[in-house]
TrEMBL record:
GO cellular component, one term: cytoplasm
One BP term from GO: protein ubiquitination
UniProt protein name: HECT-type E3 ubiquitin transferase
Residues annotated as domain HECT: 1-198
EC number of the protein: 2.3.2.26
Record keywords: Transferase, Ubl conjugation pathway
Database matches in InterPro entries: E3_ubiq-protein_ligase, HECT_dom, Hect_E3_ubiquitin_ligase
Source organism: Pseudictyota dubia
Enzyme class of the recorded protein, top EC level: transferase
MF annotations from Gene Ontology: ubiquitin protein ligase activity
Pathway: Protein modification; protein ubiquitination
One Pfam family of this chain: HECT
Family matches, as PROSITE patterns: HECT
């Protein structure tokens, strides 16, 4: 019956999505949902099999019209249906990066927009964002104390961040943090769903 199937889906997803298993982690923002653990491969050599399995379970639940009780962070569902991701999705995932980008945006506005009183504007050459000396890279710490240096686009270490390319930087940052670093896990999750739901 329906109740037995719902209970089975609840128990299976609860087990697979248990943060103690290392495949998922709690969101950096409270009450948003579980996030894929980007370091799941350091914990389980067969981690991708687990994501494929969960995808199949999600696909079967979708096919049968059963709601899955575990709360996965909403942007993953957006990704699965091909909806564009934005800075607001990053805010749900990691508030630190969101706040960093908002600070850079504020500098770009202060240093680049004409206030209508003369002076300022794009033609004065001032670029408070470029003055920070940042580029299209980031350094991530893994849970075991190691660091990973990441170029957000090819040659990113040689691309200075300015107010003029801030939009591209935001796109690259969102793409890396929400998709690229999780691509193996997302591919398996998506593939598992599509094995059941064409």
């Amino acid at each position: 019956g329906g109740a037995l199937a719902r209970e089975w889906f609840a128990l299976v997803t609860q087990s697979v999505c248990d943060v103690g298993r290392g495949l998922w982690r709690n969101g950096k923002v409270e009450d948003v949902g579980l996030q894929i653990n980007p370091w799941s491969g350091m914990i389980h050599s067969d981690h991708l099999d687990w994501y494929r399995f969960l995808g199949r379970v999600m696909g079967k639940a979708l096919f049968d019209g059963i709601k899955i009780p575990n709360a996965i962070i909403p942007y993953i569902y957006k990704f699965l249906v091909g909806a564009p991701l934005s800075l607001l999705d990053l805010k749900q995932c990691d508030r630190r990066y969101y706040d960093f980008v908002k600070t850079i945006e504020a500098l770009a506005v202060e240093g680049g927009n004409d206030d209508g009183k003369g002076g300022g504007g794009d033609d004065d050459g001032a670029d408070a964002v470029a003055d920070l000396g940042l580029n299209f890279t980031l350094t991530e710490e893994d849970p075991f104390g190691g660091e990973t240096y990441v170029e957000l686009l090819p040659g990113g270490a040689d691309v200075q961040l300015t107010r003029h390319n801030l939009g591209l930087y935001k796109e690259c940052l969102v793409r890396y943090l929400l998709i690229d670093r999780l691509r193996p896990q997302l591919t398996e999750l998506f593939g598992g769903i599509h094995e059941v739901v064409p």
